[in-house]
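---------- Forwarded message ----------

FYI, see the Pantothenate transporter record below. Original note from H. follows.
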Amino acid sequence: MGSATTKLAIWLWGSDAKDRALLAKLDVTLLPYFSLIWFLFGVTRASYSSAYISGMKEALGFQGKEYNYMSTAYLVVYAVCQMPGTSLLTIVRPKYVFVTANVAWSVLTLITYKMTHAWQVILLNAIEGGFSAIAYVGAQFILGSWYKRSELGIRAAVFCVFGQMGTMAGGWIQAGLLATLAERGGLPAWKWIFIIVSVMTIPVALFGWVFIPDLPAHRAAWYLSHEEKEHAATRLGALRKQSWDVTVFKRVLLSWQFWLLPFIFMLYSLCVQMLQNNVMAYWMASRGYTTIQQNNYPTGIYATAIFGTVVYAIISDKLQSRWEVSIAIGLTFIIGSSILVSSPSTDTGYFFAFYLLGTTFAPQAVWYSWMADVTGHDFQLRAITTGFMNSFDFAFVTWWPLVFYPATAAPNFHKGYVASLVTGALTLPFIGLIAYLEQRDRARGVIGRIEVDESIGDETDRLRGDEPGKPVDAPVNVQAAELNV
C-alpha cells in the first residue's frame, strides 16, 4: 500500500520530495478555492442567458438588443477593472482582495432576483463586472506565482474546467428549476437561480479567507511548514524585475509579451463568439427544439471544452512548450468555422461544428500559462499583462456580438461565422511569431528567472521571489539561467 501511495504521489506531484509536499498542500487549498470561485462565476454568467430564454425576457420587458446591452455593460466594466485588479495584487495581500470581491459579487447576484425592469439588470451587471473582474485574471496571476512551467498548464486547466462545469451546471440548474421550482414560494423559476448562486458563493468566500496563501514571498500560509514556505519562495527562481518605479511602463509597453499574447487571445475570443450569445440556442429554436433542449444541448459545448482544455494542457506541460498545441487549436478554429460557414444541410453538421469548436476553449489555460512562462522574470510585466490580456480581449468582445451576432439577426449568423473563420485563421502566424521570440529570448537569457540557492533563502531580500516592493539586485557574478520550470 505504501509503495502504491508513493507511486501515486510521484505521478501527481513529481519525484522531488520537497515539491511533492508543497504541491500536495497547494492542490487541496489554493487550487480548489480558485476553481470553486470560477465554477460559481460560470454558473452566474450562464444563469443570465438561461433566465433570459426561460422567462426573464418577458417578465422584465427586454426589447430589441437590450440583452446584448446587458452583456456589453458587464464586459465593459469587467475589462476596465482587470489591469488595476491584477496590479493591486502586487501591493495588497491577495486574500483581502479576493474575499472582498467574492462577497460583493454574491450580494449583487442576490439582488438581481428582485429587479422589475431590464435597465435595472443591465446596471447591476455593470457593477458586478467590476467586482468579478479579478476572478479569472487574478487567479491566473496567483497560480503563475506558485507553480512551475511543468506544473502550471494542468493547474490552469483544472481551474478553467471548473468554469466550464459552472457554465454547464447553469444550464442544467435552470432546466431543473423550470421543471421543479416554477412558482414555488410565488417566484418564477428564473429567479431561483440567482438566489441559489448567491447562497453558494458565501461559504466559498469564507474558505478563501482561511486558505488563500497570498504570494510565496509573503510566507503567510498557516498550513505550510517553515521549510515549505522557504522552498515555495525560491524554487521558481529570483525575479529580475519586481519593483514599481519609473521604468515599469517603459519596459511593459516596449515588450513583445504585452502585445502579442493579448492579441492572439483576443483573436481566439472573437473566433469562439459563435459559442456565446445564445447562438446555438437561437439556431435550435429555429429548428423546433424545446426550451428544455435549448438549455441542455448547448452544455455539450462545455463538455468538449473540458476535454480539449485538459488534454492540451497536459501535453503542453509534458513538452514544457505551448506552441505545438496552439497550432492544433488554430487549425481547429479553421475547420469548425468552415463547417458553419458552409451552412450544413443537416442538424448533425451544426452540432458537430459547435461541439468541435468547444475544444478550442483551451487557450484559457494554455495561453495564460504561455504568458506566465514568458513574463515570469518580471513581476510587474506579468501582473499588467495578465490583466491586459483579458481587457484587450473584452475591448473587442463588448461590441463584436452587436455587429456579428445581434439577437435581432437570429438564427441567421452567417456573417458571424465568416468573421470567426477569419479571426481563427489569423492566430496561426502570430503563434509562430511568439514561439520564435520565446526561443530567441530564452537563448539570449533575457527571459527565465535567476537560479538561486535555497540554503541562503533567509539571508537576503534578493531571493524573496514575488515580494511586492522589494528590489532584486542580483550580484554581477550571478549568471542568469533558465530553470527547468
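H. also flagged this: The chain is about 70% helix and 0% strand.
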